[in-house]
Amino acid sequence: MITKSLIFFFCLLVFLVIPPAFYFLNSQPFNLNQEKVEYNLPYPGILPDHPFFFIKEIRDKVLELTTRDNLKKAELYLLFSDKRSAMAIGLAKTGKDTHAVKAFLQGEEYFLKTAPLLETSRKQGVTASSDFVQRLKLSNAKHKEIGEGLLKDLPQGQDDTVNRALDLNKRVKRKIEKL
Questions:
Q1: b/e for 57-85, b at 16 or more Cβ within 10 A?
Q2: For residue range 33-65, what is the model confidence (pLDDT) as tens digits?
Q3: Is the Cβ–Cβ distance between 149 and 98 less than 8 Å?
Q4: Global pTM?
Q5: How far apart are the C-alpha atoms of 140 and 44, rounded to whole Å?
Q6: Which residues cross the membrane (predicted)?
Q7: Hey, where are the domains in the chain?
Q8: What whole-number distance in Å separates Cα of residue 136 and Cα of residue 150?
Q9: Tens digit of pLDDT for each residue in 138-173?
Q10: Max CA pair span of the chain
């Protein structure tokens, strides 16, 4: 009788304890932290606190005015936007908060100009490549990540401008998803 109860207890142990333990060991860990967006921002060059930054702004304006193709202009605006976001990161790290927030807002304003250009070009019969649209989506997600990081790192007085830039980011996201 004792051997039967030992066998029964052993079987019960095998069927009730080991499978849940095996499942628990093989389950994926749950990570509460958001994953970082895998998108590399371009090198920003000189920053707005540099005395010759105005030359860079003049060059950007000339490029913007001389670029006639809508798709090329959208790519140019994406580049300007990404560079401004990279500038915001660099300026925030050096403690130049107002310059960082201004650069981030300018970047989102440039980004907002891309979607209407793509819509106009589509109406004209030329569509953007799927790679470019994917780059826009990744860049938009990266900009959101940067804006949320700025909200955490910068002092309270800068919140309104960063929130305005994040609102622009949401508007851009809605427009990009329609493409």
A1: eeebeeeeeeeeebbebbbbbbebbbbbb
A2: 557 888 899 999 999 999 999 999 999 999 999
A3: no
A4: 0.77
A5: 17
A6: 6-25
A7: 1-179
A8: 21
A9: 999 999 999 999 988 887 777 888 889 999 999 999
A10: 95
